[in-house]
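TICKET #2291
ISSUE: user wants both folds in one file
ATTACHMENT 1:
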Amino acid sequence: MARNRAPNYLVKWAMSKEKFHPIPARDPVSGGDLYISELANEESGITIRGRFEVPRYSRLDSEQLKFLETFLRCRGMLNSVEREMKMSYPTVRARLDSLLETLDLTPTKEEVQKKDKTAEKKRKVLDQLEKGEITADEAKVKLGVLK
């Protein structure tokens, strides 16, 4: 008795449309880190084994992925993200901060950079005073301006 089998090209097409499970971020039993040990391509039949790092973006939940995609489509313009996702600015900022934290990324802080520049300028004034290049009164004026 002959079986009705789908043509090979249909089987390959169906396999290419197969949905994949998302990569878990942690070991569900111990909570420890995972690694990828095998990659395969059914079309060529190749299998690559080793210890591969789990991509950092696999740590994101579905809401964070949606936010990231919207953020990228809006080219990082938070006011556009607000409109697109119908959220307030503080909510958008909170989501962005949560995303950065999940990805172990540290945001650059303009205020910290400004404070560092001010501290550097103050050190220069104090160095000038110590070397006798300026008087105490001149240093006082310069430091007063830097507040």
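ATTACHMENT 2:
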Amino acid sequence: MTSYASIVSSLHATNGQNQLPIHSSEGIRSWSIPVSFDSTNPKSSPDIDHGVTKAPYERRFSPYEFNGGTTLAIAGIDFCVIAADTRLSSGYEILTRNSSKLHQVTKKCVLASAGCKTDVDQLRSVIDIKMSFYKHNHAKPMTTPSVAQMLSTTLYYKRFFPYYAFNVLGGIDEDGKGCVFSYDAIGSFERTPFSATGSGQAFLIPLMDNVITHRNRLDEKRDLSKEEVVEIVKDAFVTAGERDIYTGDAVEIMVITKDGIETIVFDLKKD
């Protein structure tokens, strides 16, 4: 086997410009290949990039990153339960196990967001600034349906470079009834009995269709208490955590009523 030193010596003997020795399993031969390092090699194909040409290389960059997480909101008769897990991921890495995806907008309204952490933080900042302006100008907090409309216009304003955030807004309306608003990335929204977003969305929505809206069921639908809804939310996140690697560690649950907001933390799987 030819040593590295002998190869370097052979290369230096020709000044690295005219020919390179050919090595094979039969030992060193006197064969050589004419080479040139100034991209004028006559035997080089123009379609092959040998690493010494000036062919362009494609570079990719994305300003977005999906940091995982799952959110869920359920509207009741006179309450709203909104929840999200606390895991923050990047690919197959867990960045933190204690990152809240819930953001209290008013005493009767909470925003849950999954998606890109930086975009979620920026969106929260913009919402808080607009809420401060409104309170300063009108001397009262904004109602939950008004917050829903304001969030819609905020998202639509960024439609050409959207926030990579998937939002659910939950709270109590002017009549004291629970309300949930579901959004897409550019602000289209609707009021629904429940909504789920994030990496575990596909696991939660069929379950909620069954136990909350009673779709395709023949038994009588009844109004659920907030305690029952909280237990359903816990079971739903346990279910999502079994199949979704981006959902786990703990679920933060906020129960919104006319008396205020109660926070419950329920532990999930850590792996």
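RESOLUTION: both attachments delivered.
EXTRA DETAIL ON ATTACHMENT 2: The mean pLDDT is 86.
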